[in-house]
Amino acid sequence: MSEILSLAGANLISPIILSFALGLAAALARSDLTIPEAVAKGMSVYLLFAIGFKGGVAVSAHGVDQTLILTVLAGLVLSFGLPLIAFALLKIMTGLSRTDAAAVAAHYGSISIVTFVAATSVLEGRMIDAEGYMVAVAAVMEAPAILSALWLVARGGGGGAMAPGLMREIMLNGSIVLLVGSFFIGAITGEKGLEEISAFIVTPFKGVLCLFLLDMGLIAGRGLRQSKGVLGAGAVAFAVVMPLIGSTIGMALGMMVGLSLGGIVLLMVLSASASYIAVPAAMRVALPEANPSVYLTLSLGVTFPFNLTLGIPLYLATAQIVTGG
Amino acid sequence: MSEILSLAGANLISPIILSFALGLAAALARSDLTIPEAVAKGMSVYLLFAIGFKGGVAVSAHGVDQTLILTVLAGLVLSFGLPLIAFALLKIMTGLSRTDAAAVAAHYGSISIVTFVAATSVLEGRMIDAEGYMVAVAAVMEAPAILSALWLVARGGGGGAMAPGLMREIMLNGSIVLLVGSFFIGAITGEKGLEEISAFIVTPFKGVLCLFLLDMGLIAGRGLRQSKGVLGAGAVAFAVVMPLIGSTIGMALGMMVGLSLGGIVLLMVLSASASYIAVPAAMRVALPEANPSVYLTLSLGVTFPFNLTLGIPLYLATAQIVTGG
Amino acid sequence: MSEILSLAGANLISPIILSFALGLAAALARSDLTIPEAVAKGMSVYLLFAIGFKGGVAVSAHGVDQTLILTVLAGLVLSFGLPLIAFALLKIMTGLSRTDAAAVAAHYGSISIVTFVAATSVLEGRMIDAEGYMVAVAAVMEAPAILSALWLVARGGGGGAMAPGLMREIMLNGSIVLLVGSFFIGAITGEKGLEEISAFIVTPFKGVLCLFLLDMGLIAGRGLRQSKGVLGAGAVAFAVVMPLIGSTIGMALGMMVGLSLGGIVLLMVLSASASYIAVPAAMRVALPEANPSVYLTLSLGVTFPFNLTLGIPLYLATAQIVTGG
Amino acid sequence: METHTAKRVEIVIEAPLERRLTDALTQAGVTGYTILPVRGGSGRSGQWTREGQIGRAGMVAVVCLIKPERLDGLLEAAFTVVEKHIGVVSITDAQVLRAERF
Amino acid sequence: METHTAKRVEIVIEAPLERRLTDALTQAGVTGYTILPVRGGSGRSGQWTREGQIGRAGMVAVVCLIKPERLDGLLEAAFTVVEKHIGVVSITDAQVLRAERF
Amino acid sequence: METHTAKRVEIVIEAPLERRLTDALTQAGVTGYTILPVRGGSGRSGQWTREGQIGRAGMVAVVCLIKPERLDGLLEAAFTVVEKHIGVVSITDAQVLRAERF
Ligand SMILES: Nc1ncnc2c1ncn2[C@@H]1O[C@H](COP(=O)(O)O)[C@@H](O)[C@H]1O
Ligand SMILES: Nc1ncnc2c1ncn2[C@@H]1O[C@H](COP(=O)(O)O)[C@@H](O)[C@H]1O
Ligand SMILES: Nc1ncnc2c1ncn2[C@@H]1O[C@H](COP(=O)(O)O)[C@@H](O)[C@H]1O
Ligand code: NA
Ligand code: NA
Ligand code: NA
């Protein structure tokens, strides 16, 4: 326990987390500090490209484990399955309508790539290796949760039919394409390719992540401010409980498929994190009646900061204790 | 004297100054070269974050001097006081209305962070250390000058009352929040934090500064072109004389509070420089009758280039001679 | 021949080319992946500044060859002359109107700076030196082709008179000013200046180029998708044949003026490449009746990818064989 | 100069719906439209600004100039997309140059 | 389709005043507005472009669709903010779908 | 509040022509205009989006509020620039505050 706390403490005073905290504080204090939308989008392209590329290089270097396919399958199961658990929980803990609950559930089955990146940074800082293909697992987990959510709504007779072209749009979503594409570029060009561009995608990476998290803090803070009063205590509690449940299930699956300690932690983080890019956009098309304030506030305003600050060190410590690593 | 000239000469052929000159020339020649607004804003976020962070790390490494509080007080005195001198000077040297003169005065009490950054670069190039907390002093000097200017107008019966919410807006202005926030992040995470992100905020810093100054040159040039004829010779002379007066007062105060050579130079630069971001925006709200062409042209079109090219080496040389450093 | 193929093969699996391919594939698959316009423009400013600066430093280091003036003249001849050849070829190979053919011809006399940059990267990867002033030659070749095209139209009685101010606009075009300006900054500040900012303009360069080419791929792909059916087979064939002709003439001139192997290859690449920034904008003003889909698709959709993937290694191999280098 | 009577329809809608709206307009025979970026706004679903958004969110404004007789077709097409979503539709009388163009 | 009479008010104003204007509108009971970015312009105070600006400067265009009977309240609210500042206000007659929305 | 009759002219034109258009307007005595960025659009010359463009391409929307009696001069000036180019021109009746301003 004290180990967990000291780990969490060390995590909390990293420049990355403090940058997020600065953004959050600035937004809550109504500062006019902003990062232009184009720059934020540019940074996210950079982060996705870098993380995908490095994942691909890792796979090309260490070869494809026999656990790769199993892990991808585990990711699919998690992304399809977690929304069902989330939905049941929401029905118990909150008074959200079926549609709102399904929309929220979709977010928790999907993933937050920035949380994943932050976890990767923490692991690197502690010299813990992880399977390079976890990036591909992240990509695989982005979309299926959306289908589960639509099924939940359709089952309740509430519409939720797939708008034409939506499936294609989700699968060819910019983040997925970029992550998978750069993963393949990394896998093809390998260490040699990495050497050519590592001064761009490796060394400055953490610094860019700081500015990106500054922006995330600003957005989360503004979201929290604007949605004051939208959420009850039950919903907020859900946004903390669900990651704990998700990460536990993720840990179990990660151990079953035989991942390394680092891989298990990353699978826990993917399970625990909630989407705030791909899924919200899909929800606006597929479930327009669902209230965006609800799902964005939970995902970005509560779960994201929770995972970033306390969640990641907690999952790491738990995995270390359970696996004896 | 020849020392000053050779210092100025060396300064003038640095990539930073030449980039500014390129921008200025391109704008005066009506080239369509532009740097997108979002990218320029992104670079300014980067520069503020980097300079604040490095200042904080310096403080965490060298500890808090006993001169810190005195220097902050000196900064407050300068920012409150310089507008009064500027105002008196403007009344003598120009025919500007009371409101216009007060608005200009506000700019000269406040500071230009890019001039500060450029001076830091020059000091680093000459291996002259400066107190890390000068960044905090810069932040402290941004706003008080605005109050002095409003007081000058109110005293003249010309309105200039504080619009509701303006004070808060000024204090929570993006640049101040970012500078102070990253200063604290640097102070908290210290050398260890710097190590993690120095490949982002230290090594490429000067290069980013070049592109940023290219953009400043473009903006200053366009401003000069559009405001042709707005300013008399008296106003232009003011924009060169005032920095000399400001820097002299800054030097005196810097010596009184016991700053190092580098610290004195930076305080001179802060005193000599004029705002072109925070104050103009505040003036549009608080003194809308003041003509923006006047204060922007003086601050950005005359004083900024003057400080960048001749001012900084001059202040450094003067401080070296006076302090015997 | 097998040498050419293996060279081409090595070129094709570089991160740079694969990033372009990723963008192309994403656009053709209708992914919503985009790089914000401001960020793309910011990257192009970065690339132009870096390439110009490095060229200038190279000139300051190795001195001005006696071939410099000859090469600049050769560049002028190529830029003025290639459109005439292109026009004749288009008249034979396609059914394009006189105006459309002239507009296309203008593009092929001018140059693509990104193709030039990619070729520079390939040369560096193979440790082949090139004259630093080739960057200046690139700048010189941007504009004259436009005049040839207007002359071709005017001769046919089809208007094409120089709109007032157009000449100035073309010469003071942002890319030209930035390239030439940073070339002079590099030449003035030399190795010392480079050292100060090389962590910004040298080490991360290739990585930025990857993201930039990702964006070029996206744009080329969207262009191809939208202009389906606009082009006949003849026009597409032209867009592959013309670079071969251009590069051959470029090689001959490069050898005549006595360039090094690297310099010859770069002159071939300049001759082979087609503009997609400066010339299209000029054409909208000077030849508005010309169909932008035609020239943009040929230049950006066919010739650019051809040069990037097959062209560059082909020109390099040819030059090596012919010069015995 | 000679001008022609037209309607100017302005539709403010969520960005993720942009392609669906323009597809619907095209199917309804609308031959031209212009899309303007939106920086922020306020309505029944609250206040928002572009800088406070991530991903594809945010809104856009689609402006169509059409012949008056095509207005109803356009509005119906637009409405199918706008109906359940956040957004507003407004119409003004206008004149246009070059009627052959639309 | 059924439409409802409305007024479309377009206010071009300096960006630093944006929040003050929208606050004033909200206080005057305006329930919706859309803010468009402005790239540049020209007026009595000269010519300017977005690329030639730094910081928060520049202008924005605020578009409000309102019931005709609320026009005067809106204009008065807007005018208190616009009065001493750089900017213009224009009003057009419009029709809107979904009157319940505004 | 007192308002004055005016015309609101909206010209959507290719960005490389922007300076030529505003010069022509200025010469025709137009004292004010506002330029809005355009994100994309569709017309006779096909569909395009800002993100799919490089360089100076793309379009802009220029909005002018003018006294009705100046409309013809403005349209003629605009037309010389727009004529051979991609773009549309539309006119709406409007009211403005502060007539002294335009
Ligand atoms: N009355 C209005 N006038 C102008 N824009 C509006 C109005 N109502 C809503 N909007 C725009 O439409 C968006 C969504 O509106 P709503 O569906 O009411 O939340 C807002 O964010 C505004 O950008
Ligand atoms: N007649 C007009 N038509 C359209 N926009 C205008 C007009 N006059 C002024 N503007 C806009 O309002 C801004 C400020 O105008 P002014 O207060 O006259 O300097 C200009 O930069 C334009 O963006
Ligand atoms: N009917 C229309 N309504 C609104 N915008 C239009 C219309 N027609 C054309 N445009 C705009 O003008 C641009 C060029 O149109 P065109 O010259 O018809 O290709 C398009 O990309 C649109 O942005
Ligand atoms: Na999850
Ligand atoms: Na000062
Ligand atoms: Na060429």
UniProtKB/TrEMBL annotation, chains A, B, C:
The chain crosses the membrane at residues 12-31, 43-62, 68-90, 102-121, 133-154, 166-185, 197-218, 230-253, 259-282, 294-316. Keywords: Membrane, Transmembrane, Transmembrane helix. PANTHER family: SLR1512 PROTEIN. The keyword Transmembrane applies. The lineage of its organism: Bacteria, Pseudomonadati, Pseudomonadota, Alphaproteobacteria, Rhodobacterales. This is Sodium-dependent bicarbonate transport family permease.
Automatic annotation (TrEMBL), chains D, E, F:
Pfam families: P-II (PF00543). GO terms for molecular function: enzyme regulator activity. It comes from the Bacteria. InterPro entries: N-reg_PII, N-reg_PII-like_a/b, N-reg_PII/ATP_PRibTrfase_C. One of its GO terms (biological process) is regulation of nitrogen utilization. This is Nitrogen regulatory protein P-II. It comes from Yoonia sediminilitoris. The lineage of its organism: Bacteria, Pseudomonadati, Pseudomonadota, Alphaproteobacteria, Rhodobacterales.
